[in-house]
Amino acid sequence: MTQRRLAEVAAKVGVSEATVSRVLNGKPGVSDATRSAVLTALDVLGYERPTQLRGERARLVGLVLPELQNPIFPAFADVVGNALAQRGFTPVLCTRTAGGVSEADYLELLFEQHVSGVVFAGGQYAQADASHEHYHQMIRRKLPAVLVNAAVDDLGFPRVSCDDAVAVEQAFGHLVALGHQRIGAVLGPTDHMPSRRKLAALMLCAEAARLELVEEHAMFSLEGGQAAATRLLQRGVTAIVCASDPLALGAIRAVRRQGLRVPHDVSVVGYDDSAFMTCTEPPLTTVRQPIEAMGRAAVELLANQIAGTSVATEELLFEPELVVRSSTAPAPR
C-alpha cells in the first residue's frame, strides 16, 4: 500500500501509520478492536485487503432499497441502520434508480467489499418476472441475507413481512362499514408479489361482502396512482384502497382533477403510514406497517446468520394497523 493510502487509513481510524502497517502485515501487538477498525476502514475507503486477510468478512452490511422517493424506505433504513450500529456493524446503503446501478451490480460491489451480510427491502425477489440469479449466487457464496416483504418462492432466505392480507382486510372492512359498495383498488405491477397477495385477499373480502371489486395496476409512484385512480373513477367507484401512500396521494389528485372531493365524494385509503401523511390535505387514512419491529427482526435474523446460528427460513408475518384519519367518510348517498 502506498504511503498516501496508509496515511488515509490511519487518519480514518485515528491510529498511527505504523499500527496500520502492523495490521496489514499480520504482526502482533495490535488489539482486536483496532485490527477490526483498520480492516473496516480499508473496506469503506474501497481499498483491497491484503491477500492473507481477505478471508475475513468486514463488519459491513449491505442495505439494498429500491428507491428513497417513498418516505417508508428512508424510515426503514433509519431503523435498520440503528439496529446494525448497535451490534457493531456499519450499514452500506444501496438504492436502485431507473437507469442507474442494478441490484445485481450493487451485489457485485458488496461482494468486493467483503460484506458480512445483506438486508434487502422491496428488491427483485418481489417481482415474479424479474431475474433472480444474483440471489442464487448469494446462496452459492453462503452470504447471509434477509428479505423484507413478500418474495417469490424457493429463494431459501429468511423473510420478514407485513401481513398483506390483514392490511387489505382492515382497509376493505373499514370502507364497507362506511357503506361503500363500489370499491376500487390501486395495486402495484401484476408480477409484484405483495400486490398479488393484496389482490387475492381483496377478492375474498369482496366475495364475503357480496360486492364487486374493481382493480387497476400501476407503477409505484404518485403519477401511477393518479392514472390508475382516474380509470377507477370512470368506472364509478366511491372508495379506493391503495398499495402505498404515494399511490394514495396520486388517487386524491385524480379525484380532485375530476372536480370531486375527498372524502365527501370518494374515500381513499393508503398503505405504509409513511412520514407526513398526517400533514396531507386531508390527512390520509392508511394501514401502518410496523417497520420498527420488522427492521429489528430483520437485523436479528441477519446477525444470527453471521454468528453461524441456523435460522428458520419461514416467513415472519407482522400485524399492520389501520390508522383512520380524514380521507375516508360514509359513502355518498
Q: Can you describe what's shown?
A:
The protein has 333 residues and is of the alpha/beta class. The chain has 3 domains: 51 residues, 434 Repressor (Amino-terminal Domain) (Orthogonal Bundle), CATH 1.10.260; 132 residues, Rossmann fold; 126 residues, Rossmann fold (3-Layer(aba) Sandwich). The strands form 2 sheets. It has a 6-stranded parallel beta sheet, sandwiched between helices. It has a 6-stranded mixed beta sheet with strand order 7-6-8-9-10-12, sandwiched between helices. Helix 4 links the parallel strand 1 and strand 2. Helix 1 packs across helix 3 and helix 7 runs parallel beside helix 8. The N and C termini lie far apart (77 Å).
In short:
The chain has 333 residues and is α/β, with parallel strands linked by helices.
Describe the protein's topology:
Elements: H1 3-13, H2 17-24, H3 32-45, E1 60-65, H4 72-86, E2 90-95, H5 103-112, E3 117-121, H6 133-140, E4 145-148, E5 159-162, H7 164-177, E6 182-187, H8 193-209, E7 212-217, H9 222-234, E8 239-242, H10 245-257, E9 267-272, E10 285-288, H11 291-306, E11 315-318, E12 321-323
Parallel strand pairs: 1-2, 1-3, 3-4, 4-5, 5-11, 6-7, 6-8, 8-9, 9-10
Antiparallel strand pairs: 10-12
